[in-house]
Design a protein that fits this description.
The chain is elongated. The termini are far apart. The strands form four sheets. The protein has a four-stranded mixed β-sheet with strand order 9-10-11-12. The chain is α+β, with helices and mostly antiparallel strands. The relative contact order is 0.09. Strand 9 (198-204) and strand 10 (210-218) form a beta hairpin. Helix 4 (65-71) crosses helix 5 (118-125), helix 5 (118-125) packs across helix 7 and helix 6 packs across helix 8 (163-170). It has helices at 11-16, 21-24, 46-54, 65-71, 118-125, 131-144, 148-157, 163-170, 180-191, 230-233, 236-251, 269-280, 292-298, and strands at residues 9-10, 29-33, 36-39, 62-63, 81-85, 96-100, 107-110, 113-116, 198-204, 210-218, 223-228, 255-260. It has three domains: 1-45, no CATH class; 57-170, no CATH class; 180-298, 3-Layer(aba) Sandwich (Endonuclease, Chain A), CATH 3.40.960.10. It contains 13 helices and twelve strands.
Amino acid sequence: MDLPTDRPFTVSEAAASGVTRDVLRSRRFRRLLRGVYVGADVALTLRVRLLAVLLVLPDDCAVSHRTALALWGHDTRGAGLELSTRTELRTRLPGVVLHRRLHPIQTVERDGLRVTTPERTFVDCATRLGIVALVQAAEHLLRTATTRNVLDTFCWTHHLHGVVRARRAMALVREGAESPMESLLRLMLVFARLPEPRVNVVARDAQGRFVARVDLLYPRWKVVVEYDGRHHETDARQWARDRWRREALEALGYRVIVVAAADLAEPRHIPWRVHRALVERGYDGPRPVTSVQWLRWFTRAPVVDTSGAQRAA
């Protein structure tokens, strides 16, 4: 038998292929765990790291929690590997959190790995994430992997650890949010007790022609709030397209507030900027409240914007 060239393997597999331990110690291979190796030229992706630990964990293990969220495409940088099992075997591996579960684990196969379903992943993450990051996670899953009805039904028909918190988060989840940073910006405003804006609304001119789709909109006051990621600062063409787009919105009577990545370092100013724009347009409701708890939620953004996605012109 030949050794796999794209995934980790055990010492036993190597021996069956005629590869000795001395050869495994050469520069051709890399040791990942005790008794687990991989070819030296294989990139240590999340999938490869998971395949390595699954070689030494119980057979029923499933990728879960924040690691499952990463496999479903949501940025969870900084988290270790999290998996779930129903066995009682005590196994400790560096950088691995093994959750032992009493109830059946809802799973699917994804990229050759057994991973918790989007709905189970969301509920599990309710035990590991703050409320803002949890809402961001749910809105990502709604964009890419499940529906509102399925996610709601799962939360209200299963009695799992974290499900009460997941239900609370669902009350804040909105369909149509297109990036974690848009979700973050909306929650900043709502948690500061400003009116809730609509998400990703199409603006049209008097003839009904498409002008732009805006991140957040207060229709009554014609105030637009948008997030501008770091990639726009270094892309001259995108910067020009965004400028033309904003000028077109302003020509239609919209007031456009742009929140840049650098603004997140001092988040308290953001609700006040939006409040001033609303007041200019006739808003007479409560002033923003940026409490100590609000600052705990938003002083550091729970998810970093790495999308690099370009906005429609």
